[in-house]
Design a protein that fits this description.
It is built from four helices and seven strands. A five-stranded mixed β-barrel has the order 1-3-4-7-5.
C-alpha cells in the first residue's frame, strides 16, 4: 500500500462520484434502447392499414396504431398546446374533439402545428364543417418526459391554452364518452403542419451522452490513480529527519 497514497478526501470523492457517473452512463444506454424499440414499433405500425375506433378500443397496446375516423369536429371546445417550436418559430398545436359516428365515441384529434408570432392576438385557424373521413395515429408520450404544470382548469373560455394533453380530463369536463388518447392527424385537408418527431432525443444522442459520462468516469479514475502514485513517490523521496 506504500506505493499508492491518494489521501482520504480524494478517496471519498471518487467513491461517491465514480458510481454516479457510471450509473448515468448506463441509464443513457438504457434510454437509447428504449428509444430504439419505440421507433421500431412506430415504423412497423405506420406501415399497417388503419383500423376502426372500435378495433382500437379493443387493442391491448394502442400506441402508434393508425385509425380511420368518420364523423365531424367540435370546433367549440378547442385546445392550444403551448410552447411548440418549429424551425425556431414559436407556435401551438391545435387539438379538437372529433365525434366518430360508427363507434359513437369522441377522440381528441391533434390537427398539427400553427405559428403564433404575436401572443397579443389569438392563433388563426378554421374548423371544417360537415362529416369527414380522416386517418390519424395514436400518440403515446415516451416515459420519463418533462410534464409542465398547466392552468387549463382555471380558464373559463374557449379555446383553452394548455401545457400538456389530458384527454380524459377533457371528456370528464365536457361530460362525454371518449377515449383517453391523443390522436395525431395524418397529412390532408383538415391538417396543419403534422411533421412531428416521434421522440425528442434520438438513440444516437443518448449513446453520445453515455460516452461522455463514461469518459468522465475514466478521467476521474485515471486522475485518482495518478494522484495516489504521485503522493506515494513524494512520501518515499521526502527527506527523513532523525534526532541527533
Amino acid at each position: 500500500m506504500s506505493a499508492f497514497r491518494p489521501g482520504w478526501l480524494p478517496s471519498i470523492l471518487v467513491a461517491l462520484l465514480l458510481p454516479l457517473l457510471c450509473g448515468l452512463g448506463f441509464w443513457q444506454l438504457q434510454r437509447a434502447e428504449e428509444k430504439r424499440l419505440l421507433l421500431t414499433s412506430y415504423e412497423a405500425r405506420q406501415q399497417a392499414a388503419p383500423v376502426s375506433l372500435v378495433e382500437l378500443e379493443q387493442a391491448g397496446d394502442p400506441a402508434y396504431r393508425r385509425v380511420h375516423l368518420q364523423g365531424q369536429f367540435d370546433g367549440q371546445h378547442s385546445l392550444l398546446l403551448d410552447n411548440r417550436i418549429r424551425d425556431g418559430q414559436a407556435g401551438v398545436e391545435l387539438l379538437q374533439p372529433f365525434y366518430d359516428q360508427p363507434s359513437g365515441l369522441w377522440v381528441l384529434l391533434n390537427r398539427g402545428w400553427l405559428p403564433w408570432p404575436d401572443r397579443r392576438q389569438a392563433p388563426q385557424y378554421n374548423t371544417p364543417d360537415g362529416p369527414l373521413q380522416l386517418d390519424a395515429w395514436v400518440y403515446v408520450a415516451p416515459p420519463g418526459g418533462l410534464h409542465l404544470q398547466g392552468n387549463a382548469a382555471a380558464q373559463t373560455g374557449w379555446p383553452r391554452l394548455i401545457s400538456e394533453v389530458d384527454s380524459a380530463a377533457l371528456w370528464q369536463r365536457l361530460g362525454r364518452g371518449g377515449l383517453p388518447l391523443e390522436l395525431r392527424l395524418e397529412s390532408g385537408l383538415a391538417s396543419y403542419r403534422v411533421d412531428w418527431p416521434v421522440v425528442a432525443m434520438s438513440p444516437a444522442k443518448h449513446q453520445g451522452y453515455a460516452v461522455q459520462w463514461f469518459a468522465m468516469a475514466a478521467a476521474l479514475l485515471g486522475l485518482f490513480i495518478y494522484l495516489g502514485v504521485h503522493n506515494a513517490r513524494e512520501k518515499r523521496h521526502a527527506p527523513s529527519h532523525h534526532p541527533a
